[in-house]
Amino acid sequence: MAGTVLHVRDGQIVGDGSWVYAWLLPGTPRPVVYVGATGLDPALRTWLHLNHDDPEVGRVAARYPSSGGQLDTPFDVLAFDVPVGALRSEVKTCLISRLSAENLLAPTYIGDPPVNHVETTAEQFVIDVVRAISRATDSRAT
Fold first, then answer.
1. pLDDT beyond 90 at 40
2. For the chain, which residues make up each domain, given as ranges?
């Protein structure tokens, strides 16, 4: 029987994964409204973005309405395992930069601002994630 182990240490969940994720508006040419990185399970992090009272944890719920977006809008969240040895924060920064360069950030984007391209040991991974987001957008276009 398969199961999942959640590690709790000192009253906190200790993640054993490393993820980057993008919140998308399906069917739009510039779909990305948020890019994040986490050590938690992406489903849990998505729930926290929508339901946590602290605006630094529940970022999407706290920020998206002020950008002109509506929280009842359909979203797709795509999450990707960060390669072992890559720094999650660098991957996230590089991903935001590339998504911006590809004009994939939505007018209602609420994440960290793009910066000049950042080097990462996971450059090919970032390129592959951008392609996956582009394909997801193309396949969901109406």
1. no
2. 17-140
